[in-house]
Amino acid sequence: MTTALMIIDVQEAMFSYDERMYDEEGVMGRITSLLQKARQAGAPVVYIQHTEDQEYTRGLPTWEISRMIAPQSGELIVEKPTWDAFHRTPLHEELQRRGITGLVICGLQSEFCVDTTCRRAYSLGYSSILVEDAVSTFSNGRFTAEEIVRHHNSVLGGRFAALKPEREISFA
Questions:
Q1: Which of 132, 147, 151, 171 could be bridged to 41 by S-S, CB 3.0 to 4.6 A?
Q2: Span 29-63, pLDDT tens digits
Q3: Closest listed residue to residue 71, CA positions, set 6, 128, 121
Q4: Beta bridge pairs of residue 163
C-alpha cells in the first residue's frame, strides 16, 4: 500500500488543558475511525509526536500519544522538534523507504503542525488528503477554534492537499 494514515500530535497534553478543542469528541471519533479503516486495510500508520519542552518533554505522561489511539507494534512513530513533521526528522526517508507516496492527514493543531506539515508534504511531492473533519485546535482570543479550523482547511484544501470528510476516506 502506498498511502499512509498520518496522525499529527494527538498527544495527552492536548486533553490536559482547561479549554477544550473545537469538536473534540467528534474529531477524536473520526480519527479513531480513520485508524480502524487504515488498520483493517493494512495501510501504514504514521504517528507524529511533538517533542520539545514543557508538557511535550519526552517521558512525561502529557507527551504520550493519546491512549484513545495508542500505536500498535510496527506502526511508525516520528518525534519532531518543530511544527514541520519533516524538518529535522527521519520522516521523509522513512516514507520513501516504505514506498509511501500518498498521505491521509489528520490531527492537531490546524494552524500549527497540521498546516506546516501539509505544506511540506506538498513541496516534497506527496499526494495528500487533509481530512477536514478530523483536525482541531483551540480558540486563540482573536478567532474561535472553529474559525481557525475552517480557515486553514480552506487555505490548504485544493492547493496543498485534497480536502475530504472522514466518511469519504477509504484505504482500499
A1: 171
A2: 999 999 999 999 999 999 999 998 899 999 999 99
A3: 6
A4: 130
Domain definitions of the chain by residue range:
3-168
How many angstroms separate the Cα of 124 from the Cα of each of 34, 95, 119?
24, 11, 9
pTM: 0.97
The CA radius of gyration of the chain, in Å to the nearest whole number, is 15
Query: Which residues neighbour 113 within 8 Å (Cβ) at sequence distance 6 or greater?
Result: 8, 9, 48, 50, 80, 83, 84, 85, 107
